Amino acid sequence: MRPFFAILLSALFAFIASAAPAPAATPVRPPSGTPKINKVAVDDPDVDTEGSGCRAGTVGVAFATDNSALTLIFDDFAAGVGPNSGTLRKRAFCRVNVTMSSPGWAFDVSSVDFRSYVKIAKGVEASIVSRWKWIDGKGVDMKGKGNVKKVLTGPFEDDFLLHKDGELSDSDQSVCSKASAMFQLSLSVTLTPSSSSQSGIVAGDSADVGVGELLNLSWRKC
Ligand SMILES: *[C@@H]1O[C@H](CO)[C@@H](O)[C@H](O)[C@H]1NC(C)=O
Ligand SMILES: *[C@@H]1O[C@H](CO)[C@@H](O)[C@H](O)[C@H]1NC(C)=O
């Protein structure tokens, strides 16, 4: 599954990398292969007749080869309303716990790029929210978190890209405390039509790639 997601991810976000300006100084990053994803656990606490979640095995999480980014692909994540929405529901929610190891290194999320496909008719609103944070071994939220959110109003039909900066730690000590923490990211999409005949969908992009997020990482040696 890794290589499959890796190919999707590199295709999906290649244009972002090529558009990024050359960094002023060479960023400090762990050598390729040092940070590893040990476990990806997903849960969908809000699943009901109005909402759907994500299932184990449908979320791909991977570090970029040069460790500049962490990418998440939600392979089976979509919300839909209206006559042609089939089995889709108006809300989709997915929460991902990522356990990783990066001996001697820790990171902050310096920015996030969210990407999906959105097609909503006039009168339909699509709300997209993603949040991330770190949770320590005792289950307590740590400092440093972030979110990206947007409400789109129909008519809208396009691949949708959203960029947002993260919250950087103030000291080496504070970023290094995250080295052994669990990283958690949630994604939710809600469609609100003003009448039941209006259609809308939020899903993977028009190239049929899953909904994706690319987190740009800022590393520290600990
Ligand atoms: C994810 O982490 C939260 C907070 O520690 C926990 O409540 C939840 O059960 C975890 N979910 C999975 C699927 O492990
Ligand atoms: C990633 O972050 C670095 C510095 O933190 C910045 O120079 C670069 O433009 C960012 N890249 C993207 C794709 O946001």
UniProtKB/TrEMBL annotation:
Domain of life: Eukaryota
Keyword Transferase: no
InterPro entries in alphabetical order: DUF4360 (IPR025649)
Keyword set, alphabetical order: Signal
Secretion signal span: 1-19
Pfam families, per the entry: DUF4360
Keyword RNA-binding tagged: no
Protein name (record): DUF4360 domain-containing protein
